[in-house]
Amino acid sequence: MSRTLFRTRIKFCGMTRAGDVRLASELGADAVGFIFAEGSPRCIHAREARLLRNALAPLVDAVAVFRDNAADDVREVVKQVRPSLLQFHGDEDDAFCRGFGVPYVKAIGMGNALVGDAVALQVRYPGAAAFLFDSHGDGIDGGSGQAFDWSRLPPGLVKPVILAGGLGIGNVFDAVVRTLPWGVDVSSGVEASPGHKDGDRMREFVEEVRRADCHVEPDIEAGTAGAATANGIKK
Ligand SMILES: O=C(O)c1ccccc1NCC(=O)[C@H](O)[C@H](O)COP(=O)(O)O
């Protein structure tokens, strides 16, 4: 697809306030994330997420984020919140992730030394709708605000790639131009404090992603270097 016609998808994660959800919708975000991972400062109850979901505009996805939650917890969230996507950050296998009748995204922790190549990931998670690469692993948690080395993204993935981990106003332009992901996911980088988003940062983040979408590297346009992206989609 021509880069000029491509729009990098944006997910704002770790929502805890209806006003932030509403603003995300108005800014043109594609999705917001609700965290159900125990121990996260952004963790909310299914009942709260259900109310937050009602603040979401039509055509914006609600994503429910888990880390090794019990199947009953996931079922309860699916029932109450009706997310359009599930996102799994723990050691869940494909059978578990597929077991709820909702498409899922598998988060891959780039903090781990051994991530596996594209083939290994796709064989391990054949049901995944997309892979989200984040910085967690080796003592680092999801939503850490830490970036990883983007050159470690496994090339040749057929499924869409969502880039996460330490993105913010200062680096998301470079991140998009260098890795050409299907989408970007941010939490800490647009926050005033954990779970409380900063409206100005959210707006600037969207502007930076859109600026990157309009920025066509000559070598990418000519199809010489970097045209085949981490997610295998030529833009
Ligand atoms: O955000 C959390 O607190 C969290 C805790 C446990 C598992 C996942 C979590 N976040 C989910 C995410 O989608 C990403 O990790 C996040 O958007 C990227 O975080 P950040 O580096 O803060 O931008």
TrEMBL record:
EC number from the UniProt entry: 5.3.1.24
Keyword Cytoplasm set for record: no
Pathway assigned to this chain's UniProt record: Amino-acid biosynthesis; L-tryptophan biosynthesis; L-tryptophan from chorismate: step 3/5
Top-level EC class as recorded in UniProt: isomerase
Keyword Metal-binding in record: no
Sequence ranges assigned to domain N-(5'phosphoribosyl) anthranilate isomerase (PRAI) in this UniProt record: 11-207
Reaction it catalyzes: N-(5-phospho-beta-D-ribosyl)anthranilate = 1-(2-carboxyphenylamino)-1-deoxy-D-ribulose 5-phosphate
Family annotation (SUPFAM superfamilies): Ribulose-phoshate binding barrel
Cross-referenced InterPro entries: Aldolase_TIM, PRAI_dom, RibuloseP-bd_barrel, TrpF_fam
Keywords noted in UniProt: Amino-acid biosynthesis, Aromatic amino acid biosynthesis, Isomerase, Tryptophan biosynthesis
GO molecular function list: phosphoribosylanthranilate isomerase activity
Family: Belongs to the TrpF family.
Entries under NCBIfam families matching the protein: PRK01222.1-2
Stated name of the protein: N-(5'-phosphoribosyl)anthranilate isomerase
